[in-house]
Amino acid sequence: MSDERKEAAQDIALPSYMRAIVFDGQKAVWQPRQPLPEPRSGESLLKILLAGVCNTDKEILRGYRPDFKGVMGHEFVAVVVRSDQPALIGRRVCGEINLVCHTCLYCRSGRPHHCSYRRVPGISGKDGCFAEYMTLPTELLHLVPDTLADEQAVYCEPLAAALEIPEQNHIRPSQELAVLGDGRLAFMVAQVLALSGAPVTVIGHHPEKLDRFKPFARTLLQPEGSYEVVVDATGQPAGLTTAVGLTRSGGRLIIKSTYADLSQIDMSEIVVRELQIDGSRCGPFEPALRLLEKGWVRLPEVERYRPEAFAEAFASRAFKAAIDFREVDKRD
Ligand SMILES: [Zn+2]
Ligand SMILES: [Zn+2]
């Protein structure tokens, strides 16, 4: 971007209020006059372009995070409008979601994602991206390559979450792998695993969703067979029970799902069959952006909704729904 355009972005007079979708502790409410957030030291102010709806957002509506109140949403593409790093102003970014303290035991021992004082936009202690503007520590921002459309870049966070699996585990290309679930996270996980060369089986309930997996995975409508590594990406407690049954003795079970309900599994079976169980959450953004830029990951079309139609976006059965804040500008 030219210097003039950067200055223009910096000079843009900001409104005092913005439109936002706020979780009030029980439900999502439309806030047409939410005060604009003020960036703290080390933070940038972002103007949201496109914000992805995630299963976690739906779980928050179901009580997954009873102590959270504030602007919802954590997957986004945005433009930097104020920053302590002037070179970023006017640039398009996506952002990591773990706000950490840098001083606690976890931060000092190379596990900042487990910071004792971790805050997460739209999930824990921090306003999220279902609003026209949000603030985020500048250190968490990643430049989006110009060749990527907003609709592609909004997949960065879920793709990074999928990449956390090979970040944590040695995935052997000769091992049989299974992914439980046919939603968006499962779609990212299955592709990341398939890129290793391993044979991947995807098990889901929706034939029309499973069709999308066929270019890179075998698909099944019923659980069947046994696998060295099983990933639960169903987003439902029952998925874990099924996943245990599909994992070979001495094999590994990776859990990507988070949900409001508790799951019930027979822990003795885990002991007797010596299963390894890994929780797996957020992953690395730069590798995700590289895969997106190279076009090595298929991305289903994004179904876009106006911010006021957030309830429809949350209820959408689309593979991927997103709230489009660019439309707000167009209407003004
Ligand atoms: Zn998410
Ligand atoms: Zn910390």
Quick structural summary:
By secondary structure, the protein is of the alpha/beta class. It has helices at residues 3-11, 55-61, 105-108, 150-153, 156-168, 184-194, 207-210, 237-246, 267-272, 285-294, 310-315, 326-331; strands at 17-23, 28-35, 43-52, 70-71, 75-82, 92-95, 120-121, 125-126, 133-137, 141-143, 177-180, 200-203, 218-220, 227-232, 247-255, 276-279, 303-305, 321-324. Helix 5 crosses helix 6 (184-194).
Structure characterization notes:
The chain folds into two domains: about 5-155 and about 300-330, Medium-chain alcohol dehydrogenases, catalytic domain (Quinone Oxidoreductase, Chain A, domain 1), CATH 3.90.180.10; about 160-280, NAD(P)-binding Rossmann-like Domain (Rossmann fold). The chain has twelve helices and 18 strands. The strands form four sheets. Strands 3, 5, 6, 9, 10, 17 and 18 form a seven-stranded mixed beta sheet that branches. Strands 13-12-11-14-15-16 form a six-stranded parallel beta sheet, sandwiched between helices. It is an alpha/beta fold and about 325 residues long. The model has no long low-confidence stretch (mean pLDDT about 95). Strand 17 (about 305), helix 11 and strand 18 form a beta-alpha-beta unit. Helix 5 crosses helix 6 and helix 5 crosses helix 10.
